[in-house]
Amino acid sequence: MDVDPALVKACQRGEPDALDALIRATYADVYALCRRMLADPDEAADATQEVFVRVMRSVLGFRGDSAFGTWLHRVTVNVCLTALRRRSKARATGMVAGGTPFALPGDDVELVSMRDAPDERAVTADLVARSEAALAKLPEDARAVVVLRDIEGLSTREVAELLGVTETVVKVRLHRAHARLRATILGAEPAEGGARG
C-alpha cells in the first residue's frame, strides 16, 4: 500500500479533506486485502470500515517509524485476523453454518487480456475462477497464510509475527494449503494425512 507521506502529514495537521483523500487513495487496496483474507464481500466491507475507523483514531499518533502504507497493511491484517477469530468462535458455538464464495460472478477484476485468443481467455478465466474457489475452500488459518505469503508477498517471518505462530507453523500451513489448492484446482482430493488442514 503506497501512501503519499505528505497526505499523512496533512491529516495530522488537520487540513480539510485530507483524511477523506487518504481514505479514497487507500480504500481499494484495503478492501482487496480484506476480501482475499475473509473470502466474503460483506465481512470484507465491515473489516474495511473497521480499518478506517482505526486509521481515523490513530493517524494523529502515527510517528513514522515505518512507512504509513506498511502500518496500514498491518492494521488491515490485524482487523481481518480478529474477524477470522470471531468467525471461528461463532462456528464453534454453532452460530454460523459455513463459509461463503470467494468471489461472485462479475466481481472480479479483469485478469484476462483481450489481446489473447478467445480460447486462451477462456482457459485463463476458468483457471482464475477455480483458483478463487479453491482458495475460498481452505480453512481460515490456511487461507490467511496463503494470502499473506503468496499474494501479499510477506516473508515467512512477517507472516509468523502477524499470526502469532512460529515460522515452522507458517511453513507447514503453507505446504498443506498448497497441496489442497493443487488438489482442488486439478479436481482430485488431497491425500489423507499431511495435506489436510
Describe this structure in words.
The chain is mostly helical and 197 residues long. The protein folds into two domains: 5-92, RNA polymerase sigma factor, region 2, helix turn helix motif (Rna Polymerase Sigma Factor, Chain: A), CATH 1.10.1740.10; 118-186, Arc Repressor Mutant, subunit A (Orthogonal Bundle). It has helices spanning 5-12, 18-38, 41-58, 68-92, 118-137, 140-151, 156-163, 167-186.
Question: In terms of topology, how is this protein built?
Answer:
Layout lengths: L4 H8 L5 H21 L2 H18 L9 H25 L25 H20 L2 H12 L4 H8 L3 H20 L11
Helix pairs in contact: 1-2, 2-3, 2-4, 2-6, 3-4, 4-6, 5-8, 6-8, 7-8
Give a quick summary of the entry:
The protein has helices at residues 5-12, 18-38, 41-58, 68-92, 118-137, 140-151, 156-163, 167-186. By secondary structure, the chain is mainly α.
Main attributes of the structure:
8 helices; Rna Polymerase Sigma Factor, Chain: A; Arc Repressor Mutant, subunit A; mainly alpha; 197 residues
The level of helicity is 55-70%
CATH architecture descriptor of the largest domain: Orthogonal Bundle
By CATH, the superfamily of the largest domain comes out as RNA polymerase sigma factor, region 2, helix turn helix motif
| Number of strand elements | 0
Q: What radius of gyration results from the CA coordinates?
A: 19 Å
Major beta-sheet overview:
none
Task: Please tell me what the overall shape is.
Answer: globular
**Tally of individual helices:** 8
Q: What distance lies between the first and last C-alpha atoms, to the nearest angstrom?
A: 30 Å
Topology pattern, helix = H, strand = E: HHHHHHHH
**Percent of residues in beta strands?**
under 5%
The averaged pLDDT comes out at 79
Low-confidence stretches: 95-112, 192-197
At the first level of CATH, what is the class of the largest domain?
Answer: Mainly Alpha
Coarse structural class: mainly alpha
